[in-house]
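Revision sheet: structure tokens.
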Amino acid sequence: MIAKHVPMRSVGKSDYAGLVRYITDAQSKDHRLGHVQVTNCDAYSVRDTITEVLATQYANTRAESDKTYHLIVSFRAGEQPSADTLKAIEERICAGLGYGEHQRVSAVHNDTDNLHVHIAINKIHPTRHTMHEPYYPHRALAELCTALERDYNLERDNHIPNQRGAAARAADMERHAGVESLVGWIKRECLEEIRGATSWAELHQVMRDNGLELRARGNGLVIEAGDGTTVKASTLARDLSKPALEKRLGGFEAAPERREVQAKRSYQKGPVRLRIDTTELYARYKDAQKGLTAARAEALAEAKRRKDRAVEDAKKKAAAKRTAIKLLTDGRLTKKLLYAQVSASLGADLDAIRKNYDQERAKHYQGFQRQPWADWLKQQATQGNAEALAALRARDAAQGLKGNTIEGQGRPRPGHAPVIDNITKKGTIIYRAGLSAVRDDGDRLQVSREADRDGVQAALRMALAKYGERITVTGSPEFKAQIIRAAADAQLPITFTDPGLERRRLALIEQGAKPASKRPGAHAGQVPPPQRRHGLRTLGQVEGLRMDGGEVARPTQAPRPAAISEQEQRKAKLRAELEAKKAKRQGKGRGL
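Predicted:
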């Protein structure tokens, strides 16, 4: 797991309400937003929590720095801790930073390949109204993450960053935007050549061969590419700093006058090199961005023209009213009052026009916003572009799904078309499967930990349509048992590659085909055991039931006679014969 503080670029952008609204917004996705938790607040809803936190922040009038602390806790791909574990981790991290008593809102997000938790913390204490700033937070977070990984048996991660400053920002740009940075390009293409130079002249020649220029700036050195992009030499490596180079090559010598030399290679700001060729796709992306810029400019110009016409019409309308007042109204005071009303009406109309124009401008800027390369690929993949989806999956950051997964090697059987909920920047498709989610990275399907029987059956149908009949299941024993039961209940025409799983599936199918009376563990009451088949089971089987003060209630159907032994049958027969003889003698005595 990794815990990272996301600082605001400026205090003016610090907006606790906007941050909470972002982390609690589902964005029309079924499985983006998980559990939302409010801590140390009296409010019960997110909206009331925002109001309470803002009131606490306004109580501190001395603090000039950012009053909001945005923290992200991210887990390794495939890790899905339980809700209780996530809550405990959130509490321990906040307490470790000194925010245990502070107001905060946390939200779990599932819309990427890594489950992560956003925490919006109010840095102002709710009772003392003092602001707390953690001391060396990156070290505290590294120690906390190490302890939490050990205590909750999570996959170990590297909590000491190898890069900082500009190098770290360049790596983040390549990972999230998919665009190659100058730092990354130099490290991949010519860093060893630069390090191998034995003189300043040779170093400058290496720079020219790669379309670069080395020059002094301030107390250090910078490297500039042909398009004007610059980077500090020490950002590439510590041994390329000015003191280190002067110690090795002597005093700094500026490059000779620049000559027009054909470089062997040069830096071009484009997509990170992938396993597939994306040249044509990137050209379409650039054309689309240019089209967006032109369309936005045209839309803004049209909005400006409509605003100018509306202002002109409002002024003409006001001028006509003033002319009518001047010609048709008598009395200086009356004219003055009417002129004031016209001016107020014109001001209100102009304010409404400007407000409408500002809203339209904001709408156009949002609608025609330029997209990073990775975001454009994601949008195109969502719309069904197979090339864009392949480009996302070809990125080095894509590592494959882990955990409870399903895969196969057979021939697909199309027919099941699930609903796409989202596509991540690594090319993982998140499908809706009942109340759960199924992820597809192109090689295997991953079923979420909260999947119910309907969700597991939907995942199996997707696997049947994608891989065919032979299915391989990987995961916990509980997940495998759930898969076997779902396959048997749905009577899906699949075969598990694991012989043990296949035997259990066939056993369940055979057990389900037997009559109910012959199944192991049949429900009681369907066929009673022999010792209970002719016994008294309900009050309706007795001859009558006398209630105090009531009548005799008789059953609608005579009960079945209980089974009797042979000895009892002989006694009953003898008793019946004696009764018959006695009745015969009594009948003769009465002359019958």
